[in-house]
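Researcher: Sit down with what I've pasted below and flag anything odd:
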Amino acid sequence: MRVTFEIDDELLASMKEYTGSKTNEETILYALNHMAAMPWMRDFYSRSLCTPDELADALIPGYDPDTYLDNPPPPDPTYQPPPRTHERTTPVRQ
């Protein structure tokens, strides 16, 4: 079967290097075969978890994209960020 689609050049090049594939076709076939060989992935991607509207309502009850940006809810005054469990030991590259 022949299929035409767009793939990010950097992503494909990265995967080609990672897999050691010589061609784009080999890279894509490797990824598809690797994913199909993992039962948990087949199970996860075959489930219909919820619709985008159900997800939005679960995260922000009553969410309406037309009015949300104009009237966002006030921040939760009881929110406390989680404590840091470790400090960075290597410098950040700039």
User: Anything to note?
Assistant: Residues 9-67 form one domain. The helical segments are 9-19, 24-36, 39-46, 52-59, 65-68. The radius of gyration is 22 Å. The mean pLDDT is 79.
